[in-house]
Description:
Layout: H1 5-36, H2 45-65, H3 77-101, H4 109-139, E1 145-150, H5 154-165, E2 171-177, H6 201-207, E3 212-215, H7 225-235, E4 238-241, E5 254-258, E6 261-265, H8 274-309, E7 315-321, E8 327-333, H9 341-346, H10 358-366, H11 373-379, E9 383-385, H12 392-401, E10 414-416, H13 418-421, H14 430-442, H15 446-459
Amino acid sequence: MIRGTSRYLSQIYAFTDMIVTMVVFFISWWLKFEVFDINAEHLPFQYYFVWFVILGFISYLFGFLLGFYSPKRKKSFSYEVYKIFQIQVLSLLTFLSILFFMKEMNISRGFLLIFVSGNLFSLGIYRFIVKNLLKVIRKRGYNKQYILILGAGSVGKRYYQNVNLHTELGYEIIGFLDDYQSEHEKEYTHYKPILGSLDVLGDLLEQNIVDEVILALPLQAHEKFGKIIATCEKAGVRAFIIPDFFDFLPSRPSFDHFGDIPLINIRDVPLDELGNQVIKRVFDISFSVIAILLTLPIMIIIAIVIKFTSQGPIIFKQERVGLNRRIFTMYKFRTMNQLTKVESDTQWTTATDSRKTIFGSILRRTSLDELPQFFNVLKGDMSVVGPRPERPYFVDQFKEEIPKYMIKHHVQPGITGWAQAHGLRGDTSIEERINHDIFYIENWTLLLDIRIIFKTVWNGLINKNAY
């Protein structure tokens, strides 16, 4: 049975987004020209209305192009917030470009600020309410989608367990089909039953409401996949394949294509996408310029104190391993007496390290020695947020001792990171740091970067493990 509720729900989402945007437009007009600047001269309402209908059209065009209105029952709320932000930023940039080329630059910047801010906030709140309302409805047994699992082995059972851990998504397993067993082992008798062999799939899809079929079959059953998929498509049922080798995949994979050949990308890295790279780079440059301007007086004072309290250069330069394992020169305020290159590149700093200057200890403890790295960000060697870069000597050691260590080089290194925001600095577990770095790499969003920055500042720059 073909069920198109997801398609209709997506259309409702798009229509409701339009209603919310129009309400925000009217409120923004009222606030700007009827409350804040009631006596100010401004262009007529009709002028603004026409242009913001165009902005609304651009937003929904980007929404459809970026898959915002595709079914996303399995997606988290943070994904929706990220998409809303991405769509609104791209739409605003496109809108401003059109205004520039049309030489229509008379729209109030204050109105534009109120409208964009209000739209982001309103769409986020509205989507949050809807998502939580749907969770409540689904927990009560409504708006369900029904799943049939092909294969009652370990992979099928694991998928069954995951579905039951997320009842708020509204999925219900109707049972299993399996060619090698007719009932579950004793410890799994509480699972939904095995309804028969794979041969009954066609009849079962005709006689029952099934929205998704999950192929959790071993590689030996590969020759059956074609017939199974054809049966599902004939019945109008979506089919998903869990690869039998998924236990060997280190993370959530994604699909790429080379010509007409599909490829499984073992690790899905959001920052591999050009759009995400542009967003992060714009944020890095903006944040670094502001940070340099705000901290410039502090950096000048630090430079003077270093110059008059110890011999050697003010800025310490050291090779680090960055994006794609490329070597770059990282800048820091010098905190130690002059060292040989071998000493600086191969020796770990300790809490009682005699090589540190008195002022250098203060800089390290407060993380002020890291301020010059904002210039690394402007150069493009680093990002504001990302895994902390390490010296080549230690990278060669860690990659042999710690599984997945080299994954951190899939993205640009950062001044602070998910690990550092959780206090993992200095003499702390490298394994824990790498686990945090991998989480960041696989789950990057601009909102996560902002959260890490706030968490770093909130927890304080002074850290007992920084020495």
